[in-house]
Task: inverse folding
């Protein structure tokens, strides 16, 4: 069995937008995303892997260029791989 994970850190970012009504600042504070996985070799040729992304279900923005797009919430996946 193999177990692993990672942490992705994003520092604070902001963008200023100038409009006829003034300058507005959109800001995203710093955040960390934690991902985990485990892989199990069932047979010589077949393995199963499970992934969890955004383990703590952190709400964050992925784009600050004129629009705000929420990042992916916590999600899971299971993958089977057969090698021959």
Result:
């Amino acid at each position: 069995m193999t177990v692993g994970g990672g942490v992705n850190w994003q520092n604070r970012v902001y963008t200023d937008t100038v409009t006829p009504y003034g300058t507005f600042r959109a800001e995203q504070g710093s955040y960390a995303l934690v991902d985990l996985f485990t892989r199990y070799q069932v047979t010589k040729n077949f393995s199963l892997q499970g992934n969890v992304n955004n383990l703590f279900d952190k709400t964050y923005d992925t784009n600050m260029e004129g629009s705000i797009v929420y990042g992916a919430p916590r999600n899971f996946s299971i993958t089977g791989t057969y090698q021959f």
